Each structure stands twice: as structure tokens, then as C-alpha cells.
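[job 0412] stage=fold_complex status=start
inputs:
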Amino acid sequence: MAIDRLTHLQQLEAESIHVFREAVAELEHPVLLYSVGKDSSVLLHLARKAFHPGPVPFPLLHIDSGWNFRDMISFRDALAERLQLDLRVYINPEAAERGIDPFTTDSRTFMDVTATRALRQALDLHGFDGAFGGGRRDEEKSRAKERFYSMRDRHHRWDPKNQRPELWNLYNGNHDRGESVRVFPLSNWTELDVWQYIHLEGIDIVPLYFSMPRPVVRRHGQLIVVDDDRMVLEPGEVPEQRSVRFRTLGDYPLSGAVESEATTLPAIIQEMLLARSSEREGRVIDHDSDGSMERKKREGYF
Amino acid sequence: MSHQSDLIAEDIDAYLSEHERKEMLRFITCGSVDDGKSTLIGRLLHDSQMIYEDQLAAIRKDSKRSGTQGGELDLALLVDGLQAEREQGITIDVAYRYFSTPRRKFIIADCPGHEQYTRNMVTGASTCDAAVILIDAAHGVLTQTRRHTFLVSLLGVRHVVVAINKMDLVDFDEARFEQIKADYLSFSSRLDIDDLHFVPISALKGDNVVDPSAQMPWYQGATLMYLLETLHVAGDRKHTDFRFPVQWVNRPDSRFRGYSGSIVSGVVRPGDPIMVLPSRRTSRVERIVTFDGDLDDASTPQAITLTLEDEIDISRGDVIVHQDALPAVRDRFDAMVVWMHDEPLVPGREYRIKHAAQQVRGLISAIRHRIDVNTLELQAAPSLGLNEIGRCELRLARPVALDRYDHNRGMGAFIVIDPLTNLTVGAGMVSDTGDSGPRDAWDTEPGAEHLVPQGAVPRAALAERLRQRAVTVLFTGLTASGKTTIAQAVERALFDAGHLATTIDGQQLRVGISRDLGFTATERSENLRRGIEVARAVNRAGVIALCAFVAPAELPRRRARETVGEDQFLEVFVDAPLDVCRARDQRGLYAAADRGEILDFPGVTAPFEAPSDADLVLDSARDDLATCVQRVMTLLRDREVLGGL
Ligand SMILES: Nc1nc2c(ncn2[C@@H]2O[C@H](COP(=O)(O)OP(=O)(O)O)[C@@H](O)[C@H]2O)c(=O)[nH]1
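[job 0412] stage=fold_complex status=done
writing structure:
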């Protein structure tokens, strides 16, 4: 009876699939919060595995600020087309009404309108009672105690009194009408696990993760890629071609690129691992908190 | 570890292929406050290079500032900071931490040692294969150590590493280590732990954590990290019977109908004859479907989709098993329940029970006893409060397929959900599926195959040799009426007269044979039954059995008589008025019963059916001990028990 023991990635995969199936069986109307980033790509891949050979039995929701990289939008649309996904895109109309943009509006307000409020509006609009997100516990120190199922009250607020102990793999998503559950199938994955899995499974990710010459300007100490002509150049700013890539994706005017020669997944993983033991202070931490800010936005932790 | 960063820099592909084949180990760390748990976790993360340089720099600064470690690196700051961060309003807190070595990926369930310990520990341990129990070498085994060990064994964590920390504070003394180890073993041997290791460490200095200690040459064993990397968890799946709870019926169109779920135990292959429970319909496995293609076999914990050869009606919650290895299907069973909510458990109230892949309405019909997590004592209890653990009887609205938790974690675990608040209020582990349960054991006929001829020496020969008839005398009466005292005095008197007798005490049985029983009427009855079986064995050796049991109910006493045989059984009713018994009660049991702490207490909250046809009634309030003994001796002579045939 030579059954090999599963590797850690196979075990993580099995656990995530289990969570997906459980949530779909017990929740009425779940949705997958799709941010186009690498964690979302893994999440979607696992969802496809969980329900194969059937289709993914819930829609994908992308909260679009209107300022994502063009590559993200074209990747998203091509993917939805190819995999026949039920993709819903939501943009908060308030942003246009109030003339909010990432250059002139302070970033808090910008995020609040285009991400946090947008997500709530979209969830209410469709009446979703469950939302899959790509949150991981290793992502940020404060997430170490997060659960697979995070309960939200009818105003989508995290409800401390309503959080439940999670034992074995027996998740409790029971909720009253109007309340909802955020489900995090990737809870036990680390960033390295995610990258390794992408590598191993050959999962498609947005090309922005790979280095190539892109037009950049240096602004507030960050390398900003000039992604379209809405970007107003400040006096003296001249875009120059540099080999850069992104560690996390989002709105192009707010995303700092890193200089890199990594054009393959192994090279990306190598850079990530070496950065961990690098002496350059602040680099990884900054990257991490950037990342979490971004994920908050994308996945609506607020 | 530096080998790792070299490999990353020089040959990332080699590094990746090495890391793709890692195993995973989930373990829990338990310790009392200040045993050094945070320091140890910080040390593991640090020495396996899961800490960024800049975090380290910050901690170096803090270590200097706080001066707790004389300027040395205080690794506890790595994890402590986070605890403070999230104290706001969250009560159930297990923090999960991650690190990996080339061999394994580790998930640490890190439970704070304080107040909410039971709830946290049970939550943390539920997903773990191994536990690291910390003991401060200066303090040795504490009450908390016993509690942690009990909870870990209750939750079925099979591998325990006892890390005896702060060895630097006891001069790395071998004798101290050995003594703590012996203390630990003296209580842990009673618990169910398959694999136990002891490591002397200093989390602070790093001795025997990752690298062997230069300070403790006398310790030849493995370091903590080496143990964690090599604990043999693959063989844990003791239970090899196939169990597959259906989570989701996959029916994208009329051509495909599959059953999706995660394998709880065992191996499945196409062609296997299966049965669906609880319907008991049968078929064969047709395909094992996955996104990556069909499989030739699959095992735990793989998430798969099965198709069957026949179209049968299966829904979520049903369990698919092999036909030759069936689990129990029950709507009534016993379980250990851990209560996790401020509002106490209410017996008889309706809860929702989530087990495997389904929720069923159910109630907790009886609390057989509560277990004191510190002393492991069994107590009667009307309810269970937050962090209390008890053995309970559950009744469900419909039967479900289940196994005992200690045989099969995934098929024996459940959570209790309050239907009004939707909160998870309890966790349970099936301890008895009723197959061998106490309920009707008096009436259960043993299979003929179990009957073997008994007694090489005929009773008559024994009686002649010992000059006595081997009878069983049942002393029945209220708590503190004097049963045990009288029985033992009779034993002595018989011995002095050249006879042989032994006392079998109901209370004493609960220490061993009846350790699993509580104090409900059925359990008292079962305790008596077991005592009577022991008495029969004693009788077969020619020895007189003096049984001291409250035995408050008429029916079990009659069963006892029938079991032993009418002419070998005598019943002595030790009759003392209730107030005399109360006054004599040194253990305070009556008072506890009055306060409602002990349920079903004969004479107070449960009836005592006085025997109507006792062979002898002793008034232990009026007569002194010698008189009572004399009257029993007279009875024995009258019935020709003594003095040969
Ligand atoms: N001497 C010595 N002190 C230690 C050792 N491990 C931890 N400590 C100290 O014990 C105290 C409590 O440690 P901490 O890790 O915070 O304990 P926790 O409450 O179990 O997390 C701190 O002052 C640590 O520095 C050790 O191996 N030797």
C-alpha cells in the first residue's frame, strides 16, 4: 500500500479545497473577491480544482478603482473569457461624482471611497452572504490570530463578539440574515508557499510581476510606472525606461516598482528569499505593509 | 541554515525542488506564563531564518533598552509584541506562526497560557499532530503541566515533546533533568500518549533548540528542532478504515454526478465496494476525479470527487465507507464535551451539532460527570461552565455515522452551535458509540464463542481446602452509612478466624476499572455490575467477596443476585438514618449535593430504594462496629458459609 505522504503544498491545497467546498455548501450566495493579483490567481485556481469538472459555482467580484494597471484589466478580461467566469466589476460611482483621483485626493479618502465603500456597496447590491478572500495569516503580524471564517455584521464590520473558535476542520458559518462571512482559504499559506505553488502548477499571473523595461518616474522616493496618459507629469519629470517589476499590484499611481532583472518565477522567488536575509533596512517591512494596505483594499478587511 | 541561503543564491532551481517535497507538521506549544514559550518560538523562527534582518535590528534595540536580557537579544519580543497588539476584545486567541526548514513546513498553534487556557488549548490542539510542552527547570512539573498534558492527550495529539527549559538556571544539571522527567512520567503514564520525548533546553541561549548544547554533554538525544523535523507522524493514521463524508454533490449537468469531499481516513481505489451511510445503499467506486486527472488511489487528507457505478441518492453529510469496515450509525452516543462559552451548557436544550460534513439538531441529554482538568477527578455536575470538560450523553434528531475520537479524529469530532446566537459554544469528542456502553450491559448476552470452561479446580474442592463457601456479600446503603468500614472489619474478622475474604469497594473501582463512569443511575448500575463480575472471579478462587456499594436501586441489586447465583449471594442492608449519614460524611458530599453540585445523589436528589428482602439489616446508628461485625459473622455461620461443607 505505497501511498506517498502528501507534500506540504498538497496538504495546503487539500485544506483550501475543503474550505471552498464547505463554504459553498453552507452559504447561500458567496462570491470570490478577485483582485487580479497573485493571491487571487491562486485562490481562483483552487476554486476551479474544488469544483472540477463543474464550473466555479459562484461569481468573481472585482472592485475596480478605475486606476488599476491596464495590464491587470486586460489579464482579468482575458481570463474571464477563457475560463467562462461570471465576473462582476464594480466601480463606486461616488469617485467620479466627487472627482476623486489618486493624484489630488489624499490616499486615505481615495482608498475609502474606491475600495472600502465600493466593496460594501457591491456586496449589498448583489446580496452576497459570503466572500472568499486571499488573506494569509503570515502576511502581517496582526493576522496571526485570524480565522478561516471571519464574521461580519450587517454593516460589514468585523464583529469581535461574533468570532468563533475554529476546531478541527469544522467551520461554523451560520449567520443571521444580513450578516456575512469572509472566508480565507489561504490562511495557512505563506508567501513562499504561494509563489512555489504558482511555479509548480504553472498558474498564470499578470506580467507586471515579471521584470521588463517600463517607463518610470521617481516620485517621493518611489518608482512609478507611467501606465497611461492620465498621469500628470510634474515639472522636470521625464519618464525613463528601466527594468522594473512589482511585488504587489494595485492602482498604478500608488504602486512602487522595484528594479529587478527577474524575468522568471524562480528568479522572482530567489529575489524574495534573498531580500529576507538582506541587510537593507526597511525594505521587506515596507514591502509587507504596502502589501497589506493593498490587500486590505482589495479584499475589504476594513 | 546558512547552507540554505547559499543554495538560494547559487542554485534556486535546486532549492525549489528541495522545498517542493517538504512535509508539514502542525504542533502546539503549551507552557505556563514565563516558562519561556515566546522565547522558544522566537528562537525557532530566528534560527530557521524566518525573521527579517530589520525586525532583528529593531529587537536588538529594544533588548538593549528594556535591558531584560542584559543587552542580549530578547527573542520573546518577536512574538510578544503581537500579543499586546491584539488584546482588544478578542477572547479566543490562538496565534498561528509559520516557519520551515528544508525538511518540513511547520505551523505552530501558539496558545497563551493564561485564563482562557482550556478553550484556547483545545482549539489549538485540535489541528495538531504534536505538542511541545514547556517546563521551567527551576519549577519542575506544575499543576499546569498536568493540565496541558491531559488536554493534549484528550485531543488525541499523539506526539509530545517535553522541553525542559531554562537549564542554564539550574547549571545544566543532569540530575535535575532526570528528576523532572521522572515526575512527569509518574502522571503521564496514565494518559494516552504514544510518543513521548524529553529535551533539556535553554530557549534563551539556544542550547539543544537547533544546535546541540556544549553545556550538556550528558544529553545524547536529539535537539528539539531535530525531533520536530523527524517525528514520525505519517504512521499516525492508526485507523485505516475508509471514511469519506460527502461535502458537496457535484452535478454540473445530467452527464456527471460526483461526490466531493476530503478523505478522513483510509485509502480508496476504483472498483472498491462501498456503502453509503446512513442509508446503507451499496455500489462500487467508478472513478476518483480531480482537476489534475483521475487517480488510481487516494488517501487522507486528499480532497477528491468520487463517482459511483450505480445511481443512488446521496446528499451532503452522508458518509461513504468500505462495505467491510463500517462505522457506528447512532443518534445517541457518549462524548467528552469541552464548553467554550460564558453561558453554561444547558442539558436538554436544543443545539446544532456539526459533525463531519453536516449539521444535525441535537441535545445533551445527560452529563455523566465533569473532569477536573487539574486533578483528573470525576465529579457529578448539573451543567458545564466555560472551560469545563465533561462526559455527556448526546441525542441527535437523526442517526449519523461516527467513530470513537480516539480511533478516528475526523469521524469522532464535532462542534456544538447555539441555534439562537449561531456561536460555537462547545467542542466534542465521541468517546463511546454505545456498542460496549454501560446502558444495558446486564442484559447483553455474551456470544457463545466467548464462553470458555472455567475453573480447573472444582468449587467443592476449593471449599474443602479453604473451609469456606465462596459467597458474595453485598453491603448496600447510603453514602457514609458505614458499608466499607463494616465490610473491612468483617474481612479482618474472617481472616482472624482462619478464613479468606476480600473487600470490593464501589468507590475504589472508580479509580481503575470504572474510571470512565459517572454517577447517574445507569452508571451506578454499571459500576455495580463490574464489581459483581470481579466478585465472581474472586469467588472462583474460593475467596469470599465483600462488596460495598451504595447500590441505590432494587433492579440492579436483583441482577447482581442473579448473576452470582441465588445460593451464593447475600445482601446486607446497612441502614442508618439520613441525618446520621450526613453527620458522619467527612468528604462533604451531602453538602455538595445540597448545593446542587452533585446530581443524582441517593438520599438527597435521587431515591434510595431500601431493600425489602435483605438477608440482614444492620442499624449502624444504634449498634457499634463490633456488634455489626458479629451479626454478619453469625449470618455467615447460619448460612453455612464458614466451617466447611
Ligand atoms: N535563563 C533563562 N531564561 C529564559 C529562558 N527562556 C526564557 N527565559 C526568560 O523567561 C522569561 C519569560 O519568557 P517568555 O518567553 O516571555 O515566556 P512565556 O510567558 O512563556 O512566553 C523571560 O524573561 C525570558 O527571557 C531560558 O532558557 N533561560
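[job 0412] summary: Residues 107-126 of chain A form the longest helix (20 residues).
[job 0412] exit 0
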